[in-house]
Amino acid sequence: MKKIGFIGLGNMGSAILNGILSKQTFPPEQIAVSRKHPELAEKYAENGVRIYTGNRELAAEADLIILAVKPNILESVLSEIRDVLDKQLILSIAAGWTPTRLSAALPAGVSYISAMPNVPAAVGSGCTIINEDGRYTDAQMIQAEQIFGAIGTTHRVSGRIFDVCGTLTGCGPAFVFEFMEALCDAAVLEGVPKPLAQSLAAEMIGGAARMVESSGKHPCVLKDAVCSPGGTTIEGVRALHEHGFHVGVMDAIIRAYEKGKKL
Ligand SMILES: NC(=O)c1ccc[n+]([C@@H]2O[C@H](COP(=O)([O-])OP(=O)(O)OC[C@H]3O[C@@H](n4cnc5c(N)ncnc54)[C@H](OP(=O)(O)O)[C@@H]3O)[C@@H](O)[C@H]2O)c1
């Protein structure tokens, strides 16, 4: 029976654990968590998850360790557990921790996979980018996909495009929230109550996204289909272009990606 250990149980660690428990990807008895304040993990203990106060004892007993601490803490966590690592698979979600950096911090022979989940994981609608560069067996990669599959979709990509894909999915939700806020402000300005504006914006964005997914059509084809000649939508599209919307969004991704390279 594989034992899955979590080191770090904040926003993302708890989103992954909640997903695993609610989707029953693994039974609670197979899961252990380590955190600095065990009292905060009581609700998981009630479900049958084992709680460890120390990272080392958890790491020694786990077959697969999910590292969900902040990137600046990871160095000290790895040096703390390094000498109890042997055959485990390390799953890191720490931003900026490349496979090369992980490999250097781990004993030779320890398997590792790095992945980048995103915020909608908290509601089971995440999109996790998994780096193909790493040290793992096929079975371990499948296990990683099962874990991240509990919080949404997964995509394996090569190391060459991992960071830019992670920027799109990781930073993208904030850009969509900005877009939603602007939609709501416009509706409120024209007299729509804010809660209604918010629901309409969220449903519209969700519907448009599902249309792209299910039709497989390029967004520009779908956009053209909404724009009747001489109509209202094309007038709005012109306003977006006048304000540099398209280039602005491209620039947001590129600048976030470039910033990530400097951190
Ligand atoms: N949030 C996101 O959207 C997102 C997306 C993709 C990737 N990530 C990555 O996910 C990781 C976690 O981010 P987060 O937003 O979930 O951070 P977070 O909410 O601050 O959670 C960090 C967790 O680490 C625990 N921790 C701190 N020091 C520890 C130690 N020495 N040993 C064991 N646990 C320790 C904290 O425990 P206490 O609460 O007890 O202090 C907390 O549970 C980061 O590396 C980040 O790059 C996050």
Provide a descriptive summary of the structure in words.
By secondary structure, the protein is of the alpha/beta class. The protein folds into two domains: about 5-155, Rossmann fold (3-Layer(aba) Sandwich); about 165-260, Orthogonal Bundle (ProC C-terminal domain-like fold). It is built from eleven helices and eight strands. It has an eight-stranded mixed beta sheet, with helices on both faces. Helix 7 crosses helix 11. The radius of gyration is 21 Å and the shape is elongated. NADP nicotinamide-adenine-dinucleotide phosphate (NAP) binds near residues 8, 68, 95 and 117.
Give descriptors for this structure.
single chain, 263 residues, alpha/beta, Rossmann fold, 11 helices, 55% helix, binds NADP nicotinamide-adenine-dinucleotide phosphate
Ranges where pLDDT stays below 50 over 5 or more residues in a row are none
Q: Give the C-level CATH assignment of the largest domain.
A: Alpha Beta
Q: Percentage of helical residues? A: 55-70%
Shape type: elongated
Strand content: 5-15%
Radius of gyration: 21 Å
Mean pLDDT: 95
Reading side by side through the largest sheet, how are the strands ordered? 3-2-1-4-5-6-7-8
The biggest sheet amounts to:
8 strands, mixed
What's the number of domains? 2
Distance between the termini: 39 Å
Here the CATH topology of the largest domain equals Rossmann fold
> Using DSSP, what is the number of strands?
8
Alpha-beta content class: alpha/beta
Task: Give the topology string: H per helix, E per strand.
Answer: EHEHEHEHEHEEHEHHHHH
Number of helices: 11
The CATH superfamily of the largest domain appears as NAD(P)-binding Rossmann-like Domain
